[in-house]
Amino acid sequence: MTACSSDFEFNEEVAAVFDDMLSRSIPFYHEQQSLIEEIARQFYVPGSTVVDLGSSTGTILIRLANTLGSDCMLTGYDSSRPMIKRASRKISEANPGECITIRYGDLNDKPDDLEIRHASIVTLCWTL
User: Fold this and answer.
1) How far is CA 41 from CA 11, 45, 46, 65, in A?
2) CATH, residue 109
3) Number of structural domains, the chain?
4) What's the number of CA atoms in the CB half-sphere (13 Å) around residue 124?
């Protein structure tokens, strides 16, 4: 009998259940999200940007937009196109205004392609 293995991939199926999977499998996940919001309130500099590396479905970006207000500029990077698609849909449904941008960015292969300028906050949660 041969073992069949495949690499885990952040595909359409994973993106569809990702939020539920995180909330069930990471202890204190929601508390962590709240802590990020609290830290952002303390360190956000108006007029600067907020960058989320590995933004997955955009959850923290939406929460930070609600916390910091619609005049903030938030940018999320992810290397999974299905996650970006899911994030775009969630952001549209949450309707935080025009303050959130989702972009393709690969931290492994091309980190220099990520634009991080004038950022007072950069998050990197459960990405490495």
Assistant:
1) 33, 9, 10, 11
2) 3.40.50.150
3) 1
4) 6
| Contact residues for 36 (Cβ-Cβ < 8 A; gap 6+) | 60, 63, 64, 123, 125
Listed residue (45, 40, 29, 86) closest to 63, CA to CA: 40
Domain that holds residue 38: 12-123
**String of b and e for 72-102 (b: at least 16 CB within 10 Å)?**
bbbbbbbbbebbbebbbebbeebebeebbeb
Angle among Cα 36, 38, 41 to the nearest 5 degrees reads 110
Please indicate, yes or no, if residue 32 is contained in any of the structural domains.
yes
> Could you read off the pLDDT of 30-75 as tens digits, one per residue?
888 899 999 999 999 999 999 999 998 899 999 999 999 878 999 9
101: pLDDT strictly greater than 70? yes
